[in-house]
Design goal:
The protein is an alpha+beta fold. A hairpin with a 5-residue loop joins strand 7 and strand 8. It is globular. The N and C termini lie far apart (about 50 Å). The structure holds protoporphyrin IX containing FE (HEM). Protoporphyrin IX containing FE binds next to helix 7, helix 14, strand 6 and helix 20.
Length: about 500
């Protein structure tokens, strides 16, 4: 795999090349958007400069636009197109209500992840694997909860064995491994989910996808096939390694079916089963199944493991909540154990985790939509086809209009709102809307959020019941790392655990 500096140099060269093309691009012409406010430099070279200011974190045009033009549509430079940002209830509603052939989530994923080059061409023309997440998992989460609980507890206890004295463990690595195991338990079953080599392949594949997508995204259209070939064969190689694990598992399942019948009592009902049985006939090859599996793991595991790591950092940082959370959790667990129903009753815990998500997860850009047909908002402004529309998730989550003292971690913020308004639904982690956008909004809102909520709650319950936890350096929360629009938890810091003392 090429080194980071080679990737960067290649990226910069391609950007320079492409800047020339931008001159002629109609979509970037400011005069086409008379009613739209522009934030940051404009014009061909201004856009390039603005793009680098944004990329390198010198300016935050989304936040600037949000503060200055709240409720209006504004445009920011993102080099090859304009990115239009919507804020305020009405414009976000317009996006939510738009049809898929006007504003497309898959169009924006296709572009952002360069799926024609990183996965397979046309994968998003029929993203049935996404639908299977809902059908195989979300709608059956109650049935699969015991596996989730078992995997959370076994994986965490193996990675962080309870000790009498304080011991430091790498927070990010631990979070990643636990989440990968749980997700793969639900996607491919109990044997493969524990296979360290397979989990590592998932991790490497996800990493390679992100890096390759970044370079391919910088590459002008006509050069993409060439650059894609130059970018070595890392993704195909990793895919082949994954197929070496998935192939025998498929064979094993087919053998069982031959022996015990199609619907034998011990038959798995995970994502792999759905892909084997319900994918279109032309997509039932080992390669097609493996690509869909890895693509779904990618969507699921990276954001979920970041969220878990951040929640653990917050638990250690704001340790005054520990006793209050234990007071809520313990009687429920004593009475009912850790079940899907019992964790639903833990609304202070829900609030604590949601506050962690609000402050740290998601990113500056939410609800991305590629404009497939010129789109006119309810205020009369029009965005031309070919551009992208986003909502400013991070700015919304840090807006005092919605969240008093928005930069303060208030672990019981949502629990209080729930009590004051006697509304058990609206303030839960899984509830989406124009003021809580980390799972998107509308018909495409993340179907994995039910799993995320169950996983994070189970994890934190297990930690609170089994361990004491603290920061490595008292009072110093490890600093997040930003990747342009997306925050990630600190990847090198540790967290201290010991067997619970009282
Ligand atoms: C903290 C963790 C997660 C975050 C922050 C997150 C966030 C998102 C967001 C923002 C979207 C786009 C929604 C929109 O634009 O309206 C999305 C879509 C999606 N997510 Fe998640 N996600 C997470 C975890 C998961 C997990 C665990 C799974 C699978 C088990 C998953 C599966 C999906 C799928 C399949 C879609 C596409 C939905 C569609 O086709 O309409 N996500 N997610």
């Amino acid at each position: 795999m090429a080194s980071s500096s080679t990737w960067l140099a290649l990226g910069i060269a391609l950007v320079a090349l492409y800047a020339a093309r931008c001159v002629a691009d109609d979509r970037l012409t400011k005069s086409k958007y008379k009613d739209v406010v522009f934030v940051g430099p404009t014009g061909t070279f201004g856009t390039v400069i603005g793009f680098f200011q944004l990329l390198l974190g010198f300016r935050d045009f989304i936040q600037e636009g949000f503060e200055q033009h709240y409720g209006k549509l504004f445009a920011i430079p993102t080099l090859f197109q304009m990115t239009f940002v919507v804020s305020g209830h009405d414009l976000i509603e317009d996006v939510r209500k738009a049809s898929d052939d006007q504003l497309s989530l898959y169009g924006s994923i296709k572009e952002g992840m360069q799926t024609d080059y990183t996965m397979e061409p046309h994968i998003l023309e029929n993203p049935y694997h996404f639908k299977f997440v809902h059908l195989a998992l979300t709608s059956n989460l109650g049935g699969r909860f015991p596996e989730l609980r078992e995997e959370v507890i076994t994986a965490f206890s193996e990675l962080v064995p309870p000790t009498d004295s304080w011991t430091s463990f790498p927070a990010w690595l631990t979070g990643k491994h636990v989440v990968l195991r749980v997700i793969n338990r639900l996607f491919v079953g109990p044997s493969l989910c524990k296979n360290a080599a397979y989990n590592e392949i998932n991790d490497i594949y996800s990493d390679a996808l992100v890096k390759t997508a970044l370079i391919m995204g910088f590459t002008p259209g006509p050069l993409k096939p060439i650059v894609s070939k130059l970018l070595d064969s890392y993704i195909p190689k990793t895919l082949r390694r994954a197929m070496e694990h998935i192939g025998p598992l498929i064979e094993e399942r087919l053998d069982q079916e031959r022996m015990f019948g199609k619907d034998w009592p011990g038959k798995s009902n995970d994502l792999l089963t759905w892909l084997m049985e319900k994918a279109p006939e032309s997509e039932k090859s080992l390669k097609a199944i493996t690509i869909r599996l890895l693509a779904t793991v990618f969507a699921a595991y990276r954001p979920a493991s970041m969220a878990l790591t951040q929640a653990l950092f917050d638990l250690a940082t704001f340790s005054s909540y520990i006793q209050e959370l234990r007071d809520e959790i313990e009687p429920i667990v004593k009475e009912e154990g850790i079940t899907k129903e019992s964790i639903n009753k833990m609304y202070k815990l829900d609030s604590f985790i949601k506050e962690s998500l609000r402050l740290r997860a998601g990113g500056k850009s939410s609800m991305p939509r590629k404009v497939l047909k010129d789109f006119t908002f309810s205020d009369g402004t029009t965005v031309l086809a070919g551009n992208t529309i986003i909502a400013p998730g991070y700015a919304i989550h840090h807006d005092a209009r919605h969240y008093p003292n928005p930069n303060e971690f208030d672990g019981l913020r949502f629990a209080r709102l729930r009590e004051e308004q006697d509304d058990p639904v609206r303030y839960q982690i899984i509830s989406v809307g124009p003021t809580f956008m980390m799972f998107g909004n509308g018909r495409h809102a993340c179907p994995g959020r039910f799993l995320v909520s169950a996983l994070l709650k189970t994890m934190i319950v297990h930690v609170l019941m089994t361990y004491d936890i603290k920061l490595e350096q008292d009072g110093v929360r490890p600093v997040d790392k930003w990747y342009t629009f997306t925050p990630a938890p600190n990847q090198t810091a540790g967290l201290m655990f010991r067997k619970r003392a009282k």
